[in-house]
Amino acid sequence: MKITDVKLIYAKHYLFVHIYTDAGIVGLGEAGNWGYLDATAAAINKFTSYLIGKDPFRIEDLNQNFYRSVYFRGSVIMSAISAIDIALWDIKGKALGVPVYELLGGKTRDKVRVYASVMTKETDPESLTRSYQELKKQGFTAAKIFVNGPVSSRNDGRDEFFSGRIEEELEKVRICREAVGPDFDFVLEVHRGMTVPEAIAFGREVEKYRPMVLEDPITPDNIDSMAQVAAQVAVPIATGERFINLSEFEMLMHRHAARYIRPDVCAVGGITTSKKICAVAEANDVLVIPHNPLGPVSTAACLQICASIPNLGIQELPGFCLNGAEDRMVKEPLRFENGCMMIPDAPGIGVELAEDAAELYPANERGSNAAKRAFDGSVKDW
């Protein structure tokens, strides 16, 4: 079998890739760099000339080739490699007539618990209560709470000052805990929005509401700083969604900076690299919460990994797809039941892009060049 063509599909804020073969088998992948899709597409197009005529079964070799062929690396390159890698695994699974998880060692579970990764930043007590009670009614047993500061400055910055900021975030968590009761888990999404002192103070005080995860309390650039927060806060830290190679995760775990890691299958090098990261995490008694802020192909690829590893924590289910919002993007939607995603048993990654996906979901890239600003006009991290 040989690769004959590579084509790109833009839909919504997603970039999908189809890899064609002379056996009539088509693989489907998704790129992760949602803020720079055109640049990622250009990287995939550059890789295409090398892919044509190659054996799609040589997944590790192709992954290593693109990673090592030129000394430039970064999020654009890794997202391009990821999309290609996922599509190659899809081809191999289809050719052999098995789900990808069978090629990764077989199932370790029958379903995957997920949390609702809601994208709203509500602060009104009644709205918060209704929203999280509704998620529980829908069957979710866990959900994200945004605690990364106000959307825009108000009150002359008083809600951004140290004490006021911590108090406001604590109040959100308290309201949500009272709304859903004790049998529901929270992923507290700081989104890299706190300083080290803020993260430690907030992390200590929020312990009483028993959150499952404190996600990205600070920017992940300095692993030693993240380790400092982890050492002083009892709520388990999760980080890694910005990482783009295996070594970053190894250094993070070596410094005991997180109890959960967040590899993004569409950004870190695909299924090939994600599986290696999960193995390193297993050796360090660290659990995995795959980052999944993208489309149905990303979710499907995540499920293949979740199905085959022993150290899964929980899986993120992006807010964009809740309530069937993206079901028509694929021919057969993934199934959610009682707080879990069902693991697809179709060959490959388990989903096929709808032929009219680009028309149903017109391209609309997320993000902008305008950074968030604090009350005094200074730039804040995204």
Automatic annotation (TrEMBL):
PROSITE patterns: MR_MLE_1
UniProt xrefs under Pfam families: MR_MLE_C, MR_MLE_N
Stretches that traverse the bilayer: none
PANTHER family: D-GALACTONATE DEHYDRATASE, D-GALACTONATE DEHYDRATASE-RELATED
Species this protein is from: Ventrimonas faecis
Positions of the Mandelate racemase/muconate lactonizing enzyme C-terminal domain: 125-236
Keyword ATP-binding part of the UniProt annotation: no
Coiled coil: none
Keywords on record: Lyase, Metal-binding
Protein name: Mandelate racemase/muconate lactonizing enzyme family protein
Top-level taxon of origin: Bacteria
InterPro entries on file: DgoD-like (IPR034593), Enolase-like_C_sf (IPR036849), Enolase-like_N (IPR029017), Enolase_C-like (IPR029065), Mandel_Rmase/mucon_lact_enz_CS (IPR018110), Mandelate_racemase_C (IPR013342), Mandelate_racemase_N_dom (IPR013341)
Lineage: Bacteria, Bacillati, Bacillota, Clostridia, Lachnospirales
Family matches, as Gene3D superfamilies: Enolase-like C-terminal domain, Enolase-like, N-terminal domain
